[in-house]
Every structure is written in structure tokens, then in C-alpha cells.
Design the sequence.
């Protein structure tokens, strides 16, 4: 049996690594983390005992539409990794390794989470595996703003011009320590898009401002909820695995 850490949604604020380490030690004896609003790294996490990789693979063919679920790597790759992620999720940012503030997690308790997504995406770009990205947006549920939705809309608008991964990188790189703070308002997303070479800015702006991909965001949310209730969540070849590079990499040989 293995302990599996899955990260739930909640507010993310900066705290000290020393306090975080104490909370992690406490969690070992209490059955899981109990972070709430104002804690760091900011979301709730539960330790869930699973059957490891002995469970039967889940049929995930519904995620094959690259208009909704952008993919990298060959279709006939030996292994397929599916990542469920929210652009505002702090742990997803740590998994990406892109924002400057995540570098503090390159060692210590979260070192096995740091950079997972980036490593997977590089393997896919090198043709070694296939990765499918599923954009979730449940961090909007308790907010009057919809920055997770808007970020996903922007990424899908870029995807219409085959620039999803470039926009994905720009959004995560800009992520700060906090949710629904205005950083992913549509005007800010349009500024981020200006840094993407080859992106038709007029088409992108029209797509985002007219919510041309909003229905797609809603379709994704409905489908993704069948497979993931927390972010980041990873599947390898149809089997849910821990958000742990040591485990995931061991399955990609």
C-alpha cells in the first residue's frame, strides 16, 4: 500500500517553510494535512491509501479530442500521461516549476512534486511519451470572479491557433501566490498573449472577449469531474498515480 497525496482546492497564501514542515510532521500522525485559508502552501491535502498500480486502467477515450484536451507527443507512444490541472492551483504551479516563487520547493518536502509537469511535457516533446492536458477550473466555485475559467478560455483560444502550450507556459509563469486576485482577468491574459510569437492577437482577443471557448470550458469541467476531484491529478496509462515524480518516472520506462 502506498500513501498518495492529492491536493484539494482552497485559498493559497505564503507561509514559512519551517511552519510547513511542522504541519507535515503532524499530518503523518493525524492521517493527512489540514490546511485552511491563510496557510501555506495553501490548499488542503489528504493522504489516501490506494491499491497502488494494481487497479484496472480507466477507459479515458473521452479525453482524445485535442480541441478540448491539448496533447503533446506521438499518438502511438508507449505511455500516455494525463494531467488534470487548474491554472490557479498553487500545487499545479509547483508541479509546473515555472513561477519564480516555486523554486523554494525544489528541495525539501515538495521536491518530488516540483517540476513534474515540466518533465513530463519535455519527454512528450522529445517523442518519448504522450501527455494530455485537462484544464480544470474548480477554484472559481467560491469566488465571484472566474479567473480559472478565463485562464482556461485563453489557453483554448490559443489552442485554436496551435499555441496552447505557449499560452499554458505564459499563464503558469505569471501565477502568483493567491487566487482570484485579478492576475488572470481577461485584459491581463491578453497582455500575456502578446508575448507569444506567431499568435494572431486580433483573433485571440476576439475569441477571449466573446467567450468563444466558454462552452468548451464547461464541457471539460463536466467530463473531468468523472476522473479527478483535486489538482494536480495524474494518470499513467489509465491508472491514477501519486503526484510524485519518483513514482511517475518509474512507470515511463
Sequence:
Amino acid at each position: 500500500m502506498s500513501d498518495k497525496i492529492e491536493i484539494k482546492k482552497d485559498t493559497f497564501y505564503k507561509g514559512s517553510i519551517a511552519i510547513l514542515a511542522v504541519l507535515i510532521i503532524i499530518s503523518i500522525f493525524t492521517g493527512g494535512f489540514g490546511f485552511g485559508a491563510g496557510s501555506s502552501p495553501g490548499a488542503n491535502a489528504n493522504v489516501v491509501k490506494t491499491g497502488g498500480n494494481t487497479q484496472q486502467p480507466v477507459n479515458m477515450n473521452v479525453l482524445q479530442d485535442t480541441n478540448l484536451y491539448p496533447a503533446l507527443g506521438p499518438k502511438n507512444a508507449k505511455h500516455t500521461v494525463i494531467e488534470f490541472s487548474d491554472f490557479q492551483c498553487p500545487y499545479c504551479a509547483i508541479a509546473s516549476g515555472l513561477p519564480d516563487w516555486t523554486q523554494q520547493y525544489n528541495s525539501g518536502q515538495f521536491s518530488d512534486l516540483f517540476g513534474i509537469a515540466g518533465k513530463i511535457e519535455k519527454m512528450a516533446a522529445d517523442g518519448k511519451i504522450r501527455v494530455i492536458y485537462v484544464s480544470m477550473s474548480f477554484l472559481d466555485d467560491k469566488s465571484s470572479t472566474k479567473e480559472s475559467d478565463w485562464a482556461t478560455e485563453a489557453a483554448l483560444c490559443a489552442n485554436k491557433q496551435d499555441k496552447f502550450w505557449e499560452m499554458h507556459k505564459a499563464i503558469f509563469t505569471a501565477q502568483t501566490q493567491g487566487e482570484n486576485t485579478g492576475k488572470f482577468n481577461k485584459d491581463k491574459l491578453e497582455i500575456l498573449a502578446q508575448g507569444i510569437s506567431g499568435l494572431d492577437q486580433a483573433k485571440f482577443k476576439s475569441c477571449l472577449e466573446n467567450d468563444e471557448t466558454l462552452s468548451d470550458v464547461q464541457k471539460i469541467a463536466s467530463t473531468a469531474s468523472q476522473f479527478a476531484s483535486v489538482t494536480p491529478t495524474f494518470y499513467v496509462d489509465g491508472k491514477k498515480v501519486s503526484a510524485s515524480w519518483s513514482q511517475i518516472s518509474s512507470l515511463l520506462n
Observations:
- Residues 27 and 33 are 5 Å apart (CA to CA).
